[in-house]
Amino acid sequence: MTLITVVGSVNLDLVARAPVLPRPGETITDATFERHPGGKGANQALAARRMGAEVRLIGCIGDDSEAIAATRLVRDAGVDLSRTRTVPDAHTGIALIVVDADGQNQIVVAPGANRTLAPDDVELSDTDVVICQLEIPVDVVARAVEQAPFSVLNCAPARPLPEGLLANCDVVVVNETERAFYGAALDDAAVVIVTLGAEGAAAFRKGTEVARVPSLRVEAIDTVGAGDTFVGTLAVELASGRALDTAMGMAAAAGAVATTRPGAQPAIPTRAEVTARMQEEDR
Ligand code: ADP
Questions:
Q1: CB of 16 within 8 A of CB of 31?
Q2: How far apart are CA 182 and CA 234, in angstroms?
Q3: What is the whole-number distance in angstroms between the Cα of residue 253 and the centre of ligand 1?
Q4: Residue 27's CB: how many other CB atoms inside 10 A?
Q5: Partners of residue 254 on adjacent β-strands
Q6: Is 264 in the pocket of ligand 1 (CB under 6 A)?
Q7: Cα–chain-centroid distance for residue 167?
Q8: What angle, rounded to 10 degrees, do the helices at 271-280 and 244-258 form?
Q9: How far is Cα 211 from Cα 25, in angstroms, rounded to an integer?
Q10: For 115-130, what is each residue's pLDDT tens digit?
Q11: Closest to 273 in 3D by CA, of 54, 255, 74, 263
């Protein structure tokens, strides 16, 4: 079976829904509260697992009750957490999210244990494809990409990268905002895939478009997690030897299904759901 190793973040998302966002110094008292497992690493690991791959997650969590909540869904799904390290002196990564009645949000992330992930934690034996994002120290990403037999780097959230890192990537995935942030530097990667929301996705080699796929037509209610679902699915399809455009088509469809349900991890679909929706649309 295909083994996907995800080197990335694990967070617990603490979400308060309030009529309005607070101004500096203001207290809003009539919010409701939910907490959800999150972090781009954990989200993408779950997406790859729900597509049927064997998945190992390399990351760091704190020695606290938040760690149990943050890893509940990946653990239940059978993601291998034997290389997810518990750090005694750090707290589990936390995202404090306030959402107002219009869906606008304010987010503060306290990375905690995610900051302590180190290059020596990267262990890729038997791995077919490695997935990374940018919520962990960049030297860890650099090590993973260097050692990977095949690497998929999701450049999110966008931040400056050391010289040469993109050139070591087999596939880089960005959304339109991230593409604007990096500009022509992205062309250093062998393949760049830009996700285009409801428009699907396009792939480029050295700035030349080589593939474009539509998304499914869906009633999107919450796009949180769509990008992570795209990345996890894409990695599984490429690891199974699918052609780039076929893999992108499946990833775009999976991202679309994720937008039809609230939240990030609970919204991530299984392979069976995605193929059923694709057949309905005759794709
Ligand atoms: P991000 O969430 O990282 O900004 P996108 O919004 O581009 O990424 O979404 C990732 C993928 O999810 C898209 O390539 C597309 O396949 C799917 N998707 C997102 N929004 C929609 C939508 N409104 N309708 C259909 N598919 C969508």
A1: yes
A2: 21
A3: 9
A4: 5
A5: none
A6: no
A7: 21
A8: 100
A9: 49
A10: 999 999 999 999 999 9
A11: 255
